[in-house]
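Exercise 7. Given the components listed, write out the predicted structure of the assembled complex. Treat all entries as one system.
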Amino acid sequence: MKTHKIAVMGGDGTGPEVTVEAVKVLKVAAAKFNFKLDMTDFDFGGERYKRTGETLPDSAIEEFKKFDAILLGAIGHPDVAPGILEKGILLKARFALDQYINLRPVRLFEGVETPLKNKGPADINYCVIRENSGDAYVGMGGVMMKGTPNEIATQTAVYSRFQVDRCLKYAFEYARKYGKKAQGKSDKNTLALCGKTNVLTYLYDIWERAFHEMGKKNYPEVARDYYHVDATCMWMVKNPEWFDVIVTGNLFGDIITDLGAITQGGMGIAAGGNINPEGVSMFEPIGGSAPKYTGKNVINPLAAICAGQMMLETLGEEAAAKKIDAAVRDTVAKKLKSLAAGKMGYGTTEVGDLIATAVAQ
Ligand code: IPM
Ligand code: MN
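Answer.
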């Protein structure tokens, strides 16, 4: 029997609660589909930081390298200044484990309310591939004369051709394999680059050239499209059905995936994977730690469960992943009143139970 070693990091706020539900569902899936999950808990997060001053030590990164995947809840604590835990834990894991892809599907499930008027599951069904190792996230820059009227701050967006190429390769492969024939625009699977070539004439020029060179040479069966990031936001609201697979830099990817998440029903359902195709990947609900809902059994665990589902897909447990996907879709369509915290008609643990039961069947 195949065994997958999973590091589980519940993190802060509602993170541990939703992670417990994801683990519950994963265990049921493993039993049903004949594989083993060997799970180890890690308590990195705000509480530990407050106790010990430690965020995510290098020793933990070395430890994580021995696992097949990481399941993360949420990072962010109301008593800890913004940036410390995000940089010290979440971004540290992404960077140190070189999880250079952030895969964020935007899928509206049947029965879920979207703020987009007259749009349904057939329209909101695409995937954002956010580059996850470069851009303004690299921490290059600085401040001088801080606190004076002459203060200067810079934070530089950085991309190497190497980073761009490896991300594009993943994106083209993904579009070729999982893309849908985009309605209206092309009869091919389509990869759209989201950039800002009209202003960031260095940063997105390297992306645009690499995009067309690689596409022309290696992926003629994938159609190529381009949108500026501002326009991307507009079309994600007005014509989401145009999109199939979108690839973009780290910062634009961060921003447009929150927009995407709200169109698919919000943070209660949006999941993502920080992927190192050659290494250890980390899966997470893309919402935050939601401190005000902590410990109340009201937070929606579906995003964490969907993160677990993506983890199984990546680990090659496709049948189990499909089953969880079907269970989530069915439960959302037939049982849940809403995906919002406190409005589901069920508590956090009950939603976990509903999915676990459906997966077991
Ligand atoms: C995300 C988050 C993180 C990011 C923060 C918490 C550092 O917003 O995963 O999208 O900016 O990447
Ligand atoms: Mn974000």
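Discussion: Residues 86, 90-91, 254, 286 surround 3-isopropylmalic acid (ligand 1) (CB under 6 Å). The mean pLDDT is 97.
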